[in-house]
Amino acid sequence: MLADDAPASPTHGPRTVEVPDEALPAGLARAAARWPDRVALDLLGATTTYAELARQVERAAGALHALGVRPGDRVAVALPSCPAHVVAAYAVLRLGAVLVEQNPLHTAAELRHGLRDSGAQVAIVWERTLAAVLAARDGGEGAPELRTVVAVDLTTDLPRRARLALRLPVPAARRRRDELRAPVPAGIPSWHALVAAAAPLPADHPGPAPDDVALLQYTGGTTGTPKAAVLHHRHLVANAVQCAAWTGDPQGTETLYAVLPFFHAFGLTLCLFYGVRTGATLVLLPRFDPAMFLAAQRRRPGTFLPAVPPMLDRVAAAAEESGADLTSFRYAFSGAMALPAATAARWERLTGGLVVEGYGMTETGPVALGNPLSPARRPGALGLPFPSTDVRVVDPEDPDVDVPPGTQGELLVRGPQVFAGYWRRPEETAHQLLPGGWLRTGDLVRVEEDGFVVLVDRLKEMIVTGGFKVYPSQVEDHLRGMPGVRDVAVVGLPAGDLGEKVVAALVLEPGAPAVDLAAVRAWCGERLARYAVPRDLVVLPELPRSLIGKVLRRVVREQLLGEARPA
């Protein structure tokens, strides 16, 4: 379905957008000029205006330039969401260098892969991440060729009262201090000291071009070795402009709660790039905590919340328990996993606003589809193509063949936000990016008559049993309605001649009676084809999730395979 051929539908915003011929730092410069005194960042009450943020970025860019960072150099950033992260990211981009986002909670082995694969020469890291980065750097043959590692003390960004409280000689203060800080070996420079001592980058210092590489964002960890999606400034500017069009192009009015981590594509674009471009006040939470969220909400009421469903559930539960007021939130944008109808209804009841589901991938910058921010939203649907975004539904076995309307097939996406390919992986790029700029998503969908796209399942997680195809999400959706079941993951395990068998991993509600396989099979037999009914059952205390709350089916499968192997 091409943008110009899309059926009339209740979109929120234009079908096309004009992507400006500029790089990401232009958005910050414009915001600082237009709203110099508006609060750009709020971390637990410590505020930074847009004018101050722009000055800090220029000084940080000067510090990185003094360290030898030049256009095209890769600079890794491994930090929680905090002012230092915002400043470092924009300073890297201002120099025309390439931002390499890394999860600060990764192990040394995980960091080693990203640092080595990207070729990062400089790393700006949280003190608590420092030991893992140094272990990765000093790991012998094949270690990353890091030239400089800079340590970030997160407490420096805290309000003065909070910094003083950390110095108190009491156990609680010591525990909190240990959560935020770690020893720094001699010779490792301090980020805040470097920035404070640096001369600002000259105003006439050349900046990046729109088609320069801005970001290497690692993805694919749930299906194999993570690989870096190459995103140019133009791709990320395009997605920020598309998001602005979708939300009515707010200018200097939003208070955006940045609860998603910046090291994830969802958080980086929806919070950082979109937020700064539209002059929003970003309320930063270094980690997601409902009590911290509600304390911030009392101090600075929010208007827009990009989040994942588990975050919405936890905030809503905490608000119901404490009586907190959430009615300032006009919109919430949910992604990364299916938005349950009950979660949406609960959030809209407590806020009086809307929550809509969107869809995308790291490779699409990341947003490609969304539900309209209007009563026309459709819970359970991925939504409509974003402005200037085209979609096709094709035969997964032959992506040159479009399937008939209303028939399920693999979703292809094309638009100005679609990435340039995988870093130094031409074969994988050629498989994923088809002629004409079409991206294979690996997701099975169906397009309804009015243009709404509905997810069927992920192609790569499809189970093949006895020659039949089983889509895990369909089985999971049915099992979630079973009394006593709180959560579920469905995976395929080897089963000899059958190929795979369907296995359900359940998490039960507290105090719920035991559930056996016979009961599960009876429940599923009412709605599912016989071959899709689980053949095995395991009850777990919890399901493994990513840092943004997405259930990791791959990890569940690996756990069950490990238990099935003889000792």
TrEMBL record:
It holds the Pfam family AMP-binding_C. This is Long-chain acyl-CoA synthetase. Residues 1-21 are annotated as: Disordered. Transmembrane segments: none annotated. It comes from the Bacteria. PANTHER family: LONG-CHAIN-FATTY-ACID--COA LIGASE, NONRIBOSOMAL PEPTIDE SYNTHASE PES1 (EUROFUNG)-RELATED. PROSITE patterns: AMP_BINDING (PS00455). It comes from Cellulomonas marina. Residues 475-550 form the AMP-binding enzyme C-terminal domain. GO terms for molecular function: acid-thiol ligase activity. InterPro entries: AMP-bd_C, AMP-bd_C_sf, AMP-binding_CS, AMP-dep_synth/lig_dom, ANL_N_sf, ATP-dep_AMP-bd_enzyme. Residues 29-423 form the AMP-dependent synthetase/ligase domain.
